[in-house]
Fold these 2 entries.
Entry 1:
Amino acid sequence: MHEQEQAVQLRKTRSLATGLLVAMAVLFLISRSLMPRYPHLSFVAAFAEAAMVGGLADWFAVTALFRHPLGLPIPHTAIIPRNKDRIGDSLSNFLEHNFITQEIIRAEIRPIDFAGYAATWLARPENSKAVSRQVVRSIPTMLRVIEDEDVRQFMHSRLTSAMEHTKFAPMVAEILSVLVASNRHVAFFNHLVEVAARALERNKDYIRWKIHENSPRWLPKAIDEKFYHRLLDAAQSTLDEMREEDSEWRLRFQNMADDFIQQLRTSPAYEEKLDAALSEILGHPMARDYMINIWHDIKARLEADIASPDSHIAARLDQGFRSIGNELLGDARVQRKLNQWIRIFATETIVARREMIADLVSRVIRKWDADTMSRKLELHVGKDLQYIRINGTLVGGLVGLVLHAISRIL
C-alpha cells in the first residue's frame, strides 16, 4: 500500500479513537451533572469514567512508542526513536534466522514450475519476438564496448597473457589423437593420394616437356620418351599401392602420425616451434590488418542487418527462442531437471547471502533518522494501534460498569 493511503487511513482511525475518548468525556460530564435528578445515571457515569481511564492509558502507551506524549520527556517514552539501531539489528537477526533458511526457501520455491513458466512464456510468438528484438538492440552497445580503446587494450592484454601461459602443442596433440582414433587421418591420406593422382594426370605434358628439356641434346628422343613412360608407370604404380588398405605406405603414414602426436605431447622443441609460429603469425602487420578488415566487414554487416525491419538475426533468434520453448514444453523430463537445478541454485545462493541480505535491513535502518523510523513504522502499524485505543476505551468502560454494578450490589 502507498504511504499516502496509509497516512489517510491512520488519520481516520486516530480521529475515531480520539473522538470516542472525547465522547466518553462529554458523556461523563453530562451523566455526573444529571445524577442528582437521575440516580440511575451513575451506571453511565461509571462506564464513561472507566472508558476515559482505559482510553487515556492506551493513548499514552501507543503514543509512547513513537514520541514523547504531549512533548514531555517522560522516562521510557519515545521507545522506537531511542532504540532505532537496536530495533534494526533485531529485525536483521530475526529475518536471517527465521526466514532465510534452507528449509523455508526450499519449501517456498518447491511448488514453482520455473521451466514450465519460462517455456510457456517463450513459446508465445509475441514474447519470443520481443526477446529477440531486445537482444538485437543490445548488439550495437556490445560493438561499441568492443571498439572502445581501453576495452580493446584490456582484452588484447588478457588474450596475450592467456596465450603466453597456454600450451598449444598438447592441445593440438589431443585434437589429432581424436581424429586418428576416428580414422579421419585415413580419409586425409586418401585425399592426398587422389590429389597427387589428379596432379599427375593433368601435368603429363609438362612432365614430358621437362624430361626433354633437361636431357642431353645427343640423347635420342625415343629414349626420353621411354624414360617418361617408365616414370609415369612408376608413379602410377606407387599411387595404386597407396590406395590399397594394407599397403606399407599407409602403415608409414600411421606411424608418422602417431610419432608426431607423441612429439607434440612430450617435446619442448615442438611447443617452442608452435608458439613461435603463432606469435609470428598473430604479430605480423598483414595478419593484424586482415583481422581488422574482417572485423569491420562483420560489424558493417551486423549493423546493416540490425537496422533492417526484416532483420535475419532477429528472425533466427525469434525462431530459436520459440523452438526452445516448444521443445521444452514437450519434454517433462528436462523440465524436472531444470527445475531441480534452479531450485538448488536459488536456495544455495539466497541462503549463502542471507547475512548480506539481513545486514542490508540493519544498514538501511541505521541510515534513517529517528523521525523517519517512527513515521514509517507508525504508518504501517499505527492503524491497528489506534484500534487498541478504541478497544481499550470500550473495554475499560465495560469493566468500570461491571465494577460499579458489583459495588452497588454489595
Entry 2:
Amino acid sequence: MPIASLHRGAVLLARGDRRVVDEVSGLADDSTGRACSARTRFQIASISKNMAAAAVLLLAERGRLDVADPIDRWVPHCPPAWRPITLHHLLTHTSGLGHWEEYAQLDLAAAIDPDELLARFRALAPLFAPGAGWHYSSPGYVLLARAVERAADRPYRDFLAEEIFAPLGLTGSFAGSGVGREHVATGHVAGRAVGSWDLDTVSMGAGDVWCTAEDLLSWLDGLRDARLLGAASVARMVTPHAPTGTGQAYGYGCFVGPLGAEPAIHHSGQNAGFQSYVAWQPDRDRRLVLLTNEEELDGTLVARFLAVD
C-alpha cells in the first residue's frame, strides 16, 4: 500500500512477526535536501506519555514510589488544592489540572527555568476535585517526570535513556532537545520549517521523546511481551481507568478503547511541525506506527492503514 498521501515520514504496520507495511517518504529537512530514512528520528509528541507512565510503573515495581503517593511527596511547595492529587490522578488525567490552553501566558517554544514553570502551574486552580472528572493535562505529565527525577535521583532524560530505552535496544531514541543530534527531522507546517517546542523543561514527560519508526515499533513489542515492565504492570498500564467521554478511556499514558470494531491501546501526538500515532490491537496482534514531520496529517490515514490485512 503506497503512502503517497503521507507527504513526509515513516509508517510501520506489523501483524505478528510479519511486516505488512514498511515505508518511508519525503524529506527530513528541506534546507539540506536530506531524505527521511529508517534512521530518521521524529518527535513522537504526546506518545512520550507512554514512556513517562512506564517510568513511574518501573519505579513502583522497585518500591521507589507508589501510584497512590500524593504529588506533594515528590514535587515541592504544592498549593493546598494540589494535596489530594496522587500520581494515579496525574497518570489518568483525572487530577483537575489544566492543559496547555489553560496556561495562555506560557510559550511552549521558549526555554524557562524549571522552578518558574512550576510556579506557572501552581498559579492555576484545579478545574475540578481530583477524581471528579477527566481533562487531558500535559502539565500533569511534566509533574510526573519531576516525580521520576526525585524518586530515581537522576535527570529524567537519563532515566529514560538508561532504564527504558537501553533495555529495549531503542538505540535511535532519546528525550529532550534535538540540537546537535544526528538524523533528527525538522518539523514543518504547510510545507514550511518551524522551530521546535522546548523539550528539555516545558514538555519534559509530556512530549519530549524522539524515536525512529523501528524503535517505536520495538517499544510496542516490548510492552506486548512484558520485556521491560512485568505483566502486572503492563496490565495496570492498559486498564481503562478513566472514561474520557468519547467512547474511549485512559489508562496510564495511553488511550484504551475500540478502533473500528477491535479493542486497542493507542495514542496520538502533535508537537510543532510533527504528528504521530501508535496503536496496538491485541486480538490480531497488530501494531501501527505512523510518524511525520509535517503538521498536516491526513485524518483518514490511521483508518486506512488499520484496514490493511
